[in-house]
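User: What would this chain look like folded?
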Amino acid sequence: MDDYRDHPVRQYVLTSGRAHPSRNTIRPETLLVVDPDAPRPIAPTSQQKALLELCGGMLSLAEAAAHLRLPVSLVVVIASDLVDTGHLQIRAAPRYTPPPVELLEKVLDGLRKL
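Assistant: Here's the prediction, encoded as structure tokens.
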């Protein structure tokens, strides 16, 4: 039982009982970054403050949740609130472009020669 750690505050309390974001749909791979021109929130919660500190550089929502040790669903609500107030900005993840087939074949040929 030593591995069990209970949080003194239930997670739904951290979002005022909300399980869904107000209007922004943020996926786990969404990149978040602090808006450098926005003033800091007047009375941020400790989770909002920690999320803003983490997102000083660009960070995905899933990475932020892992650093905060909170469920992704909870961090979606917290991040959404900060996006709604203009403190966080959403960046689209760059599209993955696979390398040309010819390059992959050359790499495979080289590996086979090893």
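The first strand starts at residue 31 and ends at 34. If you want, I can go into more detail on any region.
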